[in-house]
Structure formats: C-alpha cells, structure tokens
Amino acid sequence: MDSTAVDILLWGVLPYVMVVVLVGGLIWRYKYDQFGWTTRSSQLYESRILRIASPLFHFGLLAVIAGHFFGLVIPMAWTQAVGMSQEFYHFNALLVGGIAGVGTLGGIVLLIYRRRRTGPVFMATTRNDKTMYVVLTAAIVFGLWTTLASVAEGEHGHNYRETVAPWFRSLFIFQPDIAAMAQAPFSFHLHTLVGMALFVIWPFTRLVHAFTAPLHYLFRPYIVYRSRDKDSSVVPVRRGWSAVGTRDRDTKNR
User: Fold this and answer.
1) pLDDT band at residue 167 using 50, 70 and 90 as cut-offs
2) I need a labelling partner for 16 at 20 to 30 A (CA). Which of 39, 199, 201, 242 fits?
3) More confident residue, 151 or 103
4) 42, 121 in Cβ contact below 8 A?
5) Do 148 and 52 contact (CB within 8 A), yes or no?
6) Number of neighbours of residue 218 by Cβ within 10 angstroms
7) Can you list the alpha helix ranges (DSSP code H) found in 74-185?
8) How far apart are CA 219 and CA 184, in angstroms?
C-alpha cells in the first residue's frame, strides 16, 4: 500500500523531530536551568492525598512503561518461540495493562484534584504545569481507551504487534515502516501522537526529573551520624546538651 504524504509526515518524519526536541531540550535545560531541574515538591502544603496519589501514579506508570516495552520491543515471533500463544499474551496484556492503566489514571486524577483543591499548591501551579497535566492525562486516557477497545472487540480486535510494534522497532534502524503504522486503527494513531507530544514538552516541564532518578542512593556509602563506643569501661554520657570547650576555658581548668 502506497503511503500518503500525511502518513510519511506523521510516521516517518515526526518521530525523529520528537527525538531531536527531546534530546536537545534536555541538554538545554541541564545547561541553562539546573536549579529548575526539579519536581518543585509541594508535600509541605499537603501530604494526606499525596501519600496515596503519588505511589499509585508512579507505580502504575512503571507498569505501563514495562508493558509498552514488552509489547513494542519484543517481537511476536520471540514470544511464540518460547511457547507463549497470542491468545495467552493478549489476555495477560489486557489484564495487566488494564489494571496498570486504571491505577495510573486514578493516581493522576487524585494529583490533579489535590493541586486544584489545595490553595497553596494551586497557587504554585504554572501554565506550564497545566499543559503538562492535560497532555499527560490525555496520553493515559487514550492508552486505556485502546486497551478497553481491544477487550470489547475480543478475538477480532486489532493486533498492534503486527502494525505499531514493527513500525516502532523500524525507527531505530532509520527505516520507518510507514505502511504498517498506517494500517493501525485511529485510536492507536491518536495515542501515539499524544505520546509524542508528551515527549516533546517533557524537557520543559517538571517531568524532567524522571531523567535524574536518585539511583545513586542505592550505591552510596553509609553516612555515620553518631557512633557508640563499644568499650564497656567508658561511662555513657547522658543525652542532652554537652558543654562546648573554648581555648580560654580549657587553659584555665588545667
């Protein structure tokens, strides 16, 4: 099937434009706005809702990312080679993907509700934040829409591993399979376009903190704040304020 000019633009050119803006934006942000490379935490203003919403959103998002990686990067022939049928894969993908999508959507809804209803948090919300929340929520909603549509269609649903996945992998070898992506339903097109829009604005929003997760905390050495003398002959010092010696005082007491 011959690709139209729109297909070439959307699925052959736009992905690379997105990557250029993403990488260039991250470099620019790190070079000129290192102090702004943060989530601008608002936990000080409200923590009750945040204690539920933040883990729900972040863990759900991690599951969604893992599902996308498994479905887009790993070819269908590989899973079939290890004895996993398409029906079994489809069922598990819909089950896990549906749970992860609902959890992520619930988390982002709670975060938006908290930001809107908590005065100090809402006052600290910028237009940049509002745009980010709209695009991020749209990406989650459209992704969940494709999952629910697959459930409704059952065995006759679209197999994205034959269209979207080959197109995605072909981008990395700079030979985009435009025809394959063009055959995907509109819901997948919409989800993909919103996803690319999210990555375009990513470097210029608070989402940038995802690229500097504090993984070094897992490998840093222990920090000793207070040590206990194991010598039993030493009389333990009673807790409290201890006298601070000075040169004059120490000389006088000698």
Assistant:
1) very high
2) 39
3) 103
4) yes
5) no
6) 6
7) 76-81, 86-117, 119-123, 127-153, 164-171, 178-182
8) 44
Taking the model in full, what pTM does it have?
Answer: 0.80
Separation between Cα atoms, residue 11 and residue 27, nearest integer Å: 25
User: pLDDT digits over 197-221, tens only?
Assistant: 999 999 999 999 888 766 665 666 6
The Cα–Cα gap between 118 and 44 comes to 11
Residue 125 Rama label (left phi>0; alpha psi -120 to 50; beta): beta
| Cα–Cα nearest to 160, from 132, 200, 187, 194 | 187
Reply yes or no on whether the pLDDT at 2 is more than 80: no
Q: Give the CB-side neighbour count of residue 235, counting CA atoms within 13 A.
A: 2
d(CA 206, CA 210): 9
How far is it, in rounded angstroms, from Cα 170 to Cα 47?
44
Tokens representing 104 are: 């992520």
Answer yes or no: are the C-beta atoms of 164 and 75 closer than 8 Å: no
Nearest in space to 180 (alpha carbons), one of 195, 159, 191, 164: 164
End-to-end CA distance of the chain: 97
Taking the C-alpha atoms of residue 102 and residue 207, their distance in angstroms, rounded to an integer, is 20
d(CA 211, CA 192): 21
Is residue 21 classed as helix, strand or coil in its secondary structure? helix
Distance between CA atoms of 168 and 156, rounded to whole angstroms?
Answer: 23
> Would you state the structure tokens that stand for residue 248, as one six-digit string?
């004059």
